[in-house]
Amino acid sequence: MNNAVIETILSRTAAKYYDPAATLSDDDIRELVRIGTTAPTSFHLQNWRFIAVRSPEAKARLSPIAWSQPAITDAAVTFIVCGQLADSSVIPDRLAPLVASGVMPETMVQEWEIPARDLYMAYPQRQRDEAVRTATFGAAAMIYAARSMGLGSTPMIGFDDEAVHREFGLTKDEVPVMLLSIGTERSGNWAQKPRRPITEVLNLV
Questions:
Q1: What DSSP designation does 37 have?
Q2: What element of type H or E holds 5?
């Protein structure tokens, strides 16, 4: 079952060591996010935002509120991957391009908006859960895209949530789900670590 996509997934590992002299162009950063935003989202909400911390000044602002993890200063870019609380009111705008391109009939928009409203509007925990799910799907796509481009990546959850909100201007409906460093690796990084056997994690029913 080997192919290039599967090999990319199986060979990915969290990088610890980056070449601090290596950079990524803004076009490369945009491409990583473009790929990330093809990941699935509930009702096509696309409830995410990505803050690309790539200048020395921005890295210096992020590092002390993220446990001074070396990847933040050494990797070419660290994304603050934000999920936005699920909000069904944005669905008509999100679906408008589908209607305009003929993918979806206009009558179907309300058929998506109404159940989404019932699912999320009165349930703050579901709204937040969806924010975390969405951001994680997007980050995962970027991780594998980076690997396919010959780059390393490091997802991190070690940061001061409130300080990131404040320092980088997140809105009250945004959740900083993770930091994701991406850049050119240097020697010393581990290969993919062995995983628990399938017999321990899979139930066939």
A1: T
A2: helix 4-11
> Which stretches within 121-197 are classed as H helix?
124-148, 161-167
Nearest to 95 by CA among 44, 47, 130: 44
Question: Is 150 part of any domain?
Answer: no
- pTM comes to 0.96
- Characterize 121-141 residue by residue with b for buried, 16 or more Cβ atoms within 10 angstroms of its Cβ, and e for exposed: eeeeeebbbbbebbbbbbbbb
CA dist., res. 48 & res. 83, Å (int): 4
Q: Could you list the residue range(s) of the whole structural domain that residue 92 is in? A: 22-141+156-181
C-alpha–C-alpha distance, residues 51 and 47, integer Å: 14
Domain harbouring 26, CATH code: 3.40.109.10
Nearest residue to 153 via CA among 174, 129, 181: 181
User: Residues 27-85: pLDDT tens digits?
Assistant: 999 999 999 999 999 999 999 999 999 999 999 999 999 999 999 999 999 999 999 99
Rounded Cα gap, residues 194 and 34, in angstroms: 31
Number of domains present in the structure of the chain: 1
